Amino acid sequence: MRDYNYRKKWNDLLTPEIVKKLTLIHEYKGEQRLFIEAHKDELKELVEIAKVQSTEASNKIEGISTADDRLKNLVQAKTTPRNRDESEIAGYRDVLNTIHENYDYIPINANYILQLHRDLYKFLGNIDGGIFKTSDNIIREMDAEGNEKIRFRPVAAWETQASIDELCKAYNEAKGEADSLLLTMMFILDFLCIHPFNDGNGRMSRLLTLLLLYQSGFIVGKYISIEKIIEGSKETYYEVLQDSSINWHENENDYKPFVNYMLGVIVNAYREFESRVKLLTNPNLTKADRIRTVIKNHIGAITKSELMEMNPDISDTTIQRTLAELLKCGEIEKIGGGRYTKYVWKLED
């Protein structure tokens, strides 16, 4: 069986690039704590929008989706699932809420991982929910010519229970000794290589990422969707996952590509949190001023729906009126039309 002893491995990850990201994240963590204590009421809207974005993005990575209005109502438990996709979305919502509300009371062991997986499928009555895989699974990919090939061969079904037990044991033994961020990302990489379930491994890995981050005090994922950042760079996500799984069974894999990528995702989440909160809590900015500032500081074009996501407390009417005024005075340009309309700040000559 694979050696999961993180005590021997985590120091190998302390490259200059990774150390720089660790330092940044720890600095952001301290700043975020101060923001949260001072602006609890203003941040409630960010929590709700992050839940919607996280539920949408994590399921979208796996090809699971529904209409935007249905998604929001499902996440807010205002409607019941109509089909398989919506049932899986509702299950993700419930597990995400469980982690948000109870992360301090969820031990990292096989039984609790199984319980979370069971709840992921509770709206489907799925017999696979809450049990480890019953047959070997293989991760396949298609090449440019459409030929299928094996990308990775996970742990065999008969080894799964023991592998997850060893994984959790190694994680718990290394807590307090290894850097918690590095430990989290190594755990998630190994979880994905074990691939313990017949279905739902990717979504479970992202839920467990949030759980482990929250338990270590890195709660940015409550306010900014980490899953959405991953979904926006999923090609890179799959590339680094493959790179870090080479020679995994021989205990010779390199965690660095995956860990470096995931730390970059966390840095981006903290940066987005910081920029949103500064706008949200600046008493000198009107709502129209905030929209103007967001567009001016945004790299490239931005849609009205993106502006609404970034400013959940500002109404559709206010955003539309502000866009019309900015167009009228020539500060922004309109690109495209209809549902594909985007806006970009007009560069000064």
Shape: globular
Spell out the CATH superfamily of the largest domain.
Answer: Fido-like domain
Please give the domain count: 2
The number of strands is 4
Radius of gyration, rounded?
21 Å
Query: What's the CATH first level of the largest domain?
Result: Mainly Alpha
CATH architecture of the largest domain: Orthogonal Bundle
Structural class label: mainly alpha
Active site: 195
Binding site for ATP: 199-206, 237-238, 251
GO molecular function: ATP binding
Keywords: ATP-binding, Nucleotide-binding
Task: Provide an overview of this structure.
- The protein is mainly alpha-helical and 349 residues long.
- The protein folds into 2 domains: 6-279, Orthogonal Bundle (Fic-like fold), CATH 1.10.3290; 286-345, Orthogonal Bundle (Arc Repressor Mutant, subunit A), CATH 1.10.10.10.
- It contains 14 helices and 4 strands.
- The strands form 2 sheets. Strands 1-2 form a two-stranded antiparallel sheet.
- Strand 1 and strand 2 (148-152) form a beta hairpin.
- The longest helix is centred in the C-terminal third of the chain and has 25 residues, at 256-280.
- It is globular.
- The model has no long low-confidence stretch (mean pLDDT 92).
